[in-house]
Automatic annotation (TrEMBL):
Organism encoding this protein: Sedimentitalea todarodis
Domain of life: Bacteria
Secretion signal, residue range per the UniProt entry: none
The protein's annotated pathway: Amino-acid biosynthesis; L-valine biosynthesis; L-valine from pyruvate: step 4/4; Amino-acid biosynthesis; L-isoleucine biosynthesis; L-isoleucine from 2-oxobutanoate: step 4/4; Amino-acid biosynthesis; L-leucine biosynthesis; L-leucine from 3-methyl-2-oxobutanoate: step 4/4
PROSITE patterns cross-referenced by the UniProt entry: AA_TRANSFER_CLASS_4 (PS00770)
Entry-linked SUPFAM superfamilies: D-aminoacid aminotransferase-like PLP-dependent enzymes (SSF56752)
Cofactor: pyridoxal 5'-phosphate
Name this polypeptide is given: Probable branched-chain-amino-acid aminotransferase
Length: 285
């Protein structure tokens, strides 16, 4: 596989980052994941805009322009022959600098940028989407700025492990009795035809897929309500689903052991998945 690191395209085993990199020592960095369908990028502009926002919130400058970033994405897709899959992008506060909590002077410590591809032939034709996934709910023990897409993913990793140990697919996070989002996705319920999802704030990541899905839902005359919901309300809903760049729209059929919709993906989730795939393929670059 060819990867991109700080200006160079290299075989993955030749790509290197300093042990002093702030991403490695402090999780001081941000990332994005963009899907590739039919060799094209899904919602590149959305991901680029969120990346710029994340960098700004952390007082980091982007080492590349948006146009250069698009060119790098396309080059990696071409060099690795990616038809269906994803591109991971990470920018950290870089190296070298003495280990210190305070940010180093960016003149002396340039940021690091890394991109790589992952081939995922089943990304659109995902068997899990036909069955739906099961989730548990766990305490949301993350920090308070989940709107910044940082690489500090230890708690979400622990959440995935808790789900795995419980014999289910994923976990939703709960704060003060209300669902915030999934470990790596946004969370939704559907009741009486209405799509309900938590409103945007510092408590959740502002999903790029979320924005697209809510737009498509409104265009299809579906009702959308952005508000908090509890675990009990979710368990009593007609259906539930998650969204993310790598799962698109994925039905949820069980929450903490309570089955939804007879254990089958609900019609709203199924329809939104179809619309999302169709529309985002049309708009892909
Ligand atoms: N919330 C969290 C915590 C996530 O990690 C992700 C995916 N990275 C999402 C939501 C979904 O965001 P997107 O649709 O932009 O992939």
């Amino acid at each position: 596989r060819t990867v991109y690191v700080n200006g160079d395209y290299l075989p993955e085993n030749e790509a290197k980052i300093s042990i002093f990199d702030r991403g490695f020592l402090m999780a001081d960095g941000v990332y994005e994941v963009t899907s590739v369908l039919d060799g094209k990028l899904i919602d590149f502009d959305g991901h680029a805009a969120r990346l710029e926002r994340s960098l700004g919130e952390l007082e980091m400058a982007s080492p590349v322009t948006r146009d250069a970033l698009l060119a790098i994405h396309r080059e990696l897709v071409a060099r690795n022959g990616i038809d269906q899959g994803m591109i991971y992008l990470q920018i950290t506060r870089g190296a070298p600098a003495d280990r210190d909590f305070a940010f180093p002077d960016p003149e002396e410590t340039p940021s690091s940028i890394v991109l790589f591809t992952q081939n995922k032939p089943n990304i659109a034709d995902n068997p899990a989407a036909k069955k739906g996934i099961k989730i548990i709910t766990i305490d949301d023990a993350r920090w308070g700025r989940r709107d910044i897409k940082t690489v500090q993913l230890l708690y979400p990793s622990m959440g995935k492990m808790m789900a795995k140990k419980a014999g289910v697919d994923d976990a939703w996070l709960v704060q003060d009795g209300f669902v915030t989002e999934g470990t790596s996705n946004n969370a939704y319920i559907v009741k009486g035809g209405k799509i309900i999802t938590r409103e945007r704030s510092h408590d959740i990541l502002h999903g790029i897929t979320r924005a697209a899905v809510l737009r498509f839902a409104a265009e299809a005359q579906m009702q959308v309500e952005e508000r908090n919901f509890t675990v009990t309300e979710a368990q009593e809903a007609d259906e539930a689903f998650i969204t993310s760049a790598s799962t698109f729209v994925m039905p949820v059929v069980e929450i903490d052991g309570a089955e939804l919709g007879g254990g089958k993906p609900g019609p709203v989730a199924v329809r939104l998945r179809e619309i999302y795939l169709e529309e985002s393929r049309k708009a892909a670059v």
